[in-house]
Amino acid sequence: MQNTAAVPVITIDGPGGVGKGTVAHLLAKKLNWHILDSGAIYRVVAFAAEKSHLSIEDCEGLLKLIKDLALHFSTDAEGVMHVLLNEEDITARIREPHIGAAASQLSVYPAIRTALMACQRQFAQFPGLVADGRDMGTVIFPNAQLKIFLDASPEARAIRRHRQLIAQTINVTLKDVFAQIIERDERDRTRAVAPLRPAEDAIIIDTTILSVDEVFTQVVLQWDLCQQEKV
Length: 231
Known about the structure:
single chain, alpha/beta, 5-stranded parallel beta sheet, 8 strands
């Protein structure tokens, strides 16, 4: 069994709509590393709960569901990650706004976060891992070689997320998306366990007026500097 503690890890944390998922995929592709979309795991639990007619408030039921979860991630030839539950591709379905809201609700339970912690850490495989989430650098991979925290104004994030949803033919108004972002920010930043915040040693990048390419360039620069410091 490999020593996962020795696997190099780059964490990219931040609230929804800052572009961390896109940047994480670009970085993983550049480095030819594995990738972890931790938010997708919580979304899968929320989706599975809905499918099983299980209340998000039923913590015991959710823990049993997690134990029996047949979850699998695969990457196609173009580098796009697909999420499979019981061999069913649910990639698009877990991106629906109500599933994201439910995922945020169940993520406040300490027992749920603990149950999913081991699952997330198993993604640390050689040659390396780029981990995208909200507590990757603070809780899941506190010893990561590089920790990035992306942020942006709620208005900019709402516009980006609205465009993404419209592109996925999900009919939602910008006003509703903005309200959901504000609500989730409050829940994520104030929860008792693993609140959304930058790690003490994280590099903070404000993406409000930056393009994806500009953010990616900054992250790659930080990784290069990190590597130079080891020499």
